[in-house]
Amino acid sequence: MVQSVNTKAIMTLASVLRRPYLMSPHVQVNNISEVNYTALRDLCGIRAVVFDKDNTLTAPYENVAHPNATAGLEDALSVFGHSHVAILSNSAGTLDDPGHKDAAEIESAMGIAVIRHDEKKPGGLKEMLDHFEGVEDASQVCMVGDRLLTDIVFGNLFGMLTVHTLPLCSGANNAKDNKIASKIRTAENKILYGDWFGGRKIQEYTLPHKVWPGPKECPLVIQRAKEEKNGIETE
Questions:
Q1: 188 phi and psi, to 5 degrees?
Q2: pTM of the full predicted structure?
Q3: 37, 26 in Cβ contact below 8 A?
């Protein structure tokens, strides 16, 4: 699938330049299997989890969960149920997906709903909220993704609890990834996580969540010893 230009992200860039902390997530993990989904539900007021797809749940443009994401996806589905776990992609389910064919194929292969939406992230709020029964406010949603300027900015703009994961694939294993998106992701990660005062200062101003008190009072990261660890993608 050929992705069109993400005009919503370009329009939101001005807001990020004024408020760079919009790109700073509440939680940072190597992959989605390190997230404590039970704590999200029981301690953070979260009623639904929304995942980006490529390099968050799967290798780019694949329709099977990556080995490092399998345990996390199973946990999320067990804790929240299939009705309250969904994919919000900037390709499948958008206007770039004629007849939403790719969205239907993903749903058939993975058993997870793909939210249909016209505006790419950081747009799509209404469609996301309408998808989940019983979710009355965006603060009751956890947004999980590998892109700071789309997934994390989208979540932070509307008060969600945001989780940033490193990309599942790198090098030759990431050959199918959108080349422009890959370069932008590398720049995003370097800005926020690079060893310089600006990135550290941005993270100091991470927006608070309505319910979650913070990592010291309520840690949301668990470790799974057998999983492959990836480094921050900054090069």
A1: -55, -50
A2: 0.91
A3: no
Quickly count: other Cβ atoms within 10 Å of residue 14's Cβ: 9
Pairing of strands 27-29, 161-165: parallel
Tokens of 192: 């926020």
Measured between alpha carbons, how far is 198 from 188 in angstroms, rounded to an integer? 12
Is the separation of the CB atoms in 152 and 57 below 8 Å? no
Look-up: residue for tokens 């946990």?
Answer: 75
Containing 188, the helix (H) or strand (E) segment is: helix 179-193
Cα 180 from Cα 149, distance rounded (Å): 13
Summarize pLDDT for 4-16 with one digit per residue, the tens. 555 556 667 778 9
Tokens of 113: 């709903």
Spatial neighbors of 104 by CB under 8 A, at least 6 apart, are 114
pLDDT single digits (tens) 105-124 = 999 999 999 999 998 898 89
- Tell me which DSSP letter residue 56 carries: T
- Written as one letter, the residue type at 186 is T
Question: Which amino acid appears at position 42 of this protein?
Answer: D
Q: In angstroms, rounded to a whole number, what is the distance separating the alpha carbons of residues 107 and 121?
A: 20
- Which of 53-64 are b and which e, b meaning 16 or more Cβ less than 10 Å from the residue's Cβ? bbbbbbbbebbe
Judging by beta carbons within 10 Å of its beta carbon (0-12, 13-18, 19+), is residue 166 exposed, middle or buried? Answer: buried
Helix (H, G, I), strand (E, B), or coil: what is residue 164? Answer: strand
**For residue 216, what are its two tokens?**
């010291």
- Write the DSSP symbol of residue 118: S
Q: To which residue do tokens 């600006």 refer?
A: 198
